[in-house]
Amino acid sequence: MLNARSGTITVPAPDRFGHFVGIDWSGAAGERQRGIAVAMCAAGDATPTLVRPGHIWSRAEVLHWLIHELPLDAIVGLDLGASLPFADAGAFFPGWVDSPPDARALWATIEAIAAGDPHLSAGSFVDHPEIARHFRRHGGRKGEYFTGRGRLRVTEVAQREQGLNPYSNLNLVGAAQVGKSSLTGMRVLHRLAGRIAIWPFDPLPATGPVALEIYTSLAALAAGRPKGRAKMRNHAALDEALAMLGSEPTGGHGPIDDHKSDAILTAAWLRRDAHRPALWQPEGMTPEIGTTEGWTFGIA
To answer: Which fold has domain 17-82+197-280?
Structure first.
């Protein structure tokens, strides 16, 4: 459905996107990250392929690729949290007078405070004396506002209701934490502003590339992987999952890095499901949530 005045659409036409990109992200320290993988496929059923196979990406390189090399008809799924909890307390950082009013202001705040941090990291942001009160950090440092497992966004509560196991983006400790990836990813989202539409913070445009938040485990569940076994570490498991999504197999044999398999499977899942109207109009995503917390694509 097209809004002629704004040039935006509420749901995409079946041929709106011609390329589908899955990006497994990493917030780890250092310039280059083995945990980053980028995969892409075109419309049809050909196997998604890794972009620059064998390359160890930096976050800055992914940003450059998105700005300068991404096909104009692409939809990009980024495996990171695009914002922090807001709806439960009416603020990202309750009790702080300078708490940003929406997600774009949050991204700008992270960028401003962490501008001197190398490799698009965000250590200075979480070490800020007011902001640190809301995070769980290494060394047993837990802010007084961080309770239990940490606050969740509305979309993360919905993830849990769909059988997933989300972690709070305010938790920066543990192997399963996603907070570091999310904060570094928000620096990337800030720099993409005005270049690529970022759903749902931007309306869905009638043309041009679109980036959005995804959860790779959701793609795995959609491909028939059992709960608790979303990771695929060999080509046989990956090819079985790809077949469930209508994709040709990789043709590979033996082990595969699970970051690469996550990116490949996500690209195939986006190709199959990116045009489903219900995924663009999730029941729990109000206009306010769309501008503050955002949403995980694929969560109904």
So the answer is: Nucleotidyltransferase; domain 5 (3.30.420)
Phi, psi of 105 (to 5 degrees): -70, -35
Report the range of poorest mean pLDDT among 28-42, 215-229, 250-264: 215-229
What's the alpha-carbon Rg for the chain, to the nearest Å? Answer: 18
Q: What is the pLDDT of residues 83-142, one digit of tens each?
A: 999 999 999 999 999 999 999 999 999 999 999 999 999 999 999 999 999 999 999 899
Mean pLDDT, the chain, as a whole number?
95
Q: Where are the beta strands (DSSP E) in the chain?
A: 2-3, 8-9, 19-24, 37-42, 49-50, 74-79, 136-137, 141-142, 197-198, 204-205, 210-213
* Other beta carbons within 10 Å of 282: 20
Q: Is 76 helix (H, G, I), strand (E, B) or coil?
A: strand
CB-based contacts of 113, cutoff 8 Å, min separation 6: 124, 125, 128, 131
For residue 42, give the 3-state DSSP assignment. Answer: strand
Domain residue limits, the chain: 17-82+197-280
CA-to-CA distance for 202 and 282, rounded, in angstroms? 15
Work out the burial of residue 98: count CB atoms within 10 Å of its CB; fewer than 13 is exposed, 13-18 middle, 19 or more buried: exposed
Confirm if 22 and 48 have CB atoms less than 8 A apart: yes
pTM for this predicted structure = 0.95
How would you classify the pairing of strands 37-42 and 19-24? antiparallel
Confirm if 285 and 300 have CB atoms less than 8 A apart: no
